[in-house]
Write a structure and sequence with these properties.
This protein is of the alpha+beta class. It has one domain. Helices cover about 25% and strands about 40% of the residues. The radius of gyration is 17 Å and the shape is globular.
């Protein structure tokens, strides 16, 4: 299949491949969310160095006025790099949230913690495929 992924501040990323895993956090804990992430990992064949090639997609979505959606997609060569790409991403970077100041500090902290917690749950869901499992010792 051919995919075209939007990227904020960059041209779209077009590639042929297959979707390996995805998670849409729009609905969590039985209710619609106002801020959420859409995560995906694609297999994109063999990269320029001859290694397997993956595409990692991280999209931030918001319904809040004054906040903007953000789309990120990158190409990596190993399953370990897929994992590290998700780990290195700061899910609260795009959250504008409450106005700065002491009056809203506690609410902002709760908002950021909630967005981060849901993001980590989604990352766990996407990386649950055997392809991304951390392996210990030799296998028979």
């Amino acid at each position: 299949m051919e995919f075209t992924l939007p990227r904020t501040g960059k041209p779209p990323l077009k590639f042929r491949g297959r979707l390996l895993a995805e998670s849409d956090g729009e609905r969590a804990t039985g209710r619609d969310q106002n801020r959420w992430h859409e995560l995906a990992v694609y297999s994109a064949g063999v990269g320029p160095t001859g290694l397997a090639c993956y595409v990692v997609r991280i999209a931030y979505r918001t319904r809040w006025q004054g906040e903007l959606d953000h789309d990120y997609a990158t190409v990596v060569e190993t399953a370990e790099m897929v994992t590290s790409t998700f780990s290195a991403h700061s899910p609260a970077n795009d959250v504008r949230g409450y106005p700065p100041g002491d009056a809203y500090a506690e609410r902002q902290a709760r908002l950021v913690a909630d967005v981060q917690e849901r993001y980590l749950a989604q990352v766990s869901e996407v990386l649950s495929a055997d392809e991304f499992a951390e392996r210990l010792g030799a296998t028979d």
